[in-house]
Design brief:
Mean pLDDT of chain A: 79
Strand content of chain A: under 5%
Oligomer: heterodimer
CATH class of chain B: Alpha Beta
Helix content of chain A: 55-70%
Family (chain B): Belongs to the ClpS family.
Pfam family, one (chain B): ClpS
Number of domains of chain B: 1
GO molecular function (chain B): peptidase activity
Helix content of chain B: 55-70%
Organism (chain B): Nesterenkonia sandarakina
Distance between the termini of chain A: 46 Å
Structural class of chain A: mainly alpha
Function (chain B): Involved in the modulation of the specificity of the ClpAP-mediated ATP-dependent protein degradation.
Distance between the termini of chain B: 33 Å
Radius of gyration of chain A: 22 Å
Number of helices of chain A: 10
Shape of chain A: globular
Number of domains of chain A: 1
Order of helices and strands of chain B: HEHHEHE
Chain lengths: 253, 103
């Protein structure tokens, strides 16, 4: 039985059983394969892109160029999971297609890299990771959850309840109840990881929060300076200014 | 990629960009919208808002609750290029995010 993620002096750690690690790792491999299949789709979608299909690096270059040139929008994936992992960036389909042409390749690459890192971390027990790798593992775990949720057609809060009941109630194991059980396990694991990670975030934030309201007071030079040279984790007490301007931005919404 | 480095860089970018756009008054402002879904955990969404945008705990939780209860929330404003970066970053975290022109 797995134990929750907890903070250690060197990062985070969870004790996972071998079959749990293998299961998560093989799910990562499945999602990597799915994401890679999209590369072929997107390339073959391109009219006259035989060279691009032969050379992934060239395909990427072409896609970037096409995006910059504002050429043909790229259609969203037909597969539900891929559409969830690589979502539209606009509610306007044409705008979304142009954005997709420009950015989908790099988003897909980033997700594949996250999942590969997660597989590497899952090779040893206990599963340990430093501060830098924890968000990477967390993102990969989230993508696995999104994948299973999509396959289980989990689209509403009611669906979430149905999946939960499926996970805890089923004694006869069919595919759906098995997926629901894994989904629930990963939800728990992710929750424990981010609960532990949250402890280490600065309470008052690091941003000049007035700036994100775009309000008339968003050009405060003190706040800009404070956020400009604050490294992650070393902001802390002197952020009293941004916090109070954040309050102002909040009430104006 | 390293999210910590990325967020520090992009915050610097925001400050510079917003100064330039105020000077030039040319770039139209865009906003980043995050949409509700039943999969992303509240803990996770708050963590992303705090870690990526550098929001305070209170502000991040308020935005997270707004997404949860109202179906969407504007989580960032800025010039288009910055907003595009933010949307892609949200997608990398698995959040449903879109770009729109600010009202």
């Amino acid at each position: 039985m797995a134990t929750a993620f907890r903070a250690t002096t060197r990062g985070y750690r969870a004790d996972l059983e071998q079959h749990e690690r293998r299961l998560l790792s093989s799910l990562c491999a499945d999602v990597i394969e799915l994401l890679e299949s999209r590369e072929d789709d997107a390339a073959s979608n391109d009219a006259g892109s035989r060279n691009a299909a032969e050379d992934p690096a060239f395909a990427h270059f072409r896609a970037e160029l096409a995006g910059l040139g504002g050429e043909e929008p790229l259609e969203p994936p037909e597969d539900d999971v891929l559409r969830r992992l690589l979502p539209d960036a606009s509610t306007d389909p044409e705008e979304a297609g142009h954005f997709r042409r420009l950015s989908e390749n790099s988003l897909r690459g980033a997700k594949i890299a996250d999942l590969r890192t997660a597989r590497m971390l899952l090779e040893s027990t206990p599963v340990t990771m430093d501060e830098e790798l924890a968000p990477v593992f967390g993102r990969a775990l989230n993508d696995l959850r999104l994948t299973l949720a999509s396959r289980l057609q989990l689209n509403t809060a009611e669906d979430a309840e149905r999946v939960h009941k499926l996970a805890v109630g089923a004694s006869a194991k069919d595919t759906d109840s098995f997926m629901a059980e894994i989904y629930t396990f990963m939800t728990w694991l992710q929750e424990t990881l981010f609960s532990a990670m949250t402890e280490f975030l600065p309470e008052h934030g690091t941003a000049a929060e007035g700036a994100d309201s775009n309000g008339p007071d968003s050009h405060g030079t003190d706040a800009d300076t404070a956020s400009g040279d604050a490294g992650p984790g070393d902001s802390g007490p002197r952020d009293a200014g941004p916090e109070s301007s954040g309050g102002a931005g909040t009430s104006s919404r | 990629m390293s999210s910590a480095e990325g967020s520090t860089l992009s915050r610097e970018g925001t400050d510079l960009d917003s100064e330039f756009s105020q000077l030039l008054s040319a770039a139209r402002p865009y906003q980043v919208v995050v949409w509700n879904d039943p999969v992303n955990l509240m803990t996770y969404v708050s963590w992303v808002f705090r870690s990526y945008f550098g929001h305070s705990k209170a502000r991040a939780e308020q935005l997270m609750m707004q997404v949860h209860e109202q179906g969407r929330a504007v989580v960032a404003h800025g010039p288009r290029e910055k907003a595009e970066q933010d949307v892609t970053a949200m997608h990398q975290y698995g959040l449903q995010a879109t770009l729109e022109e600010a009202e």
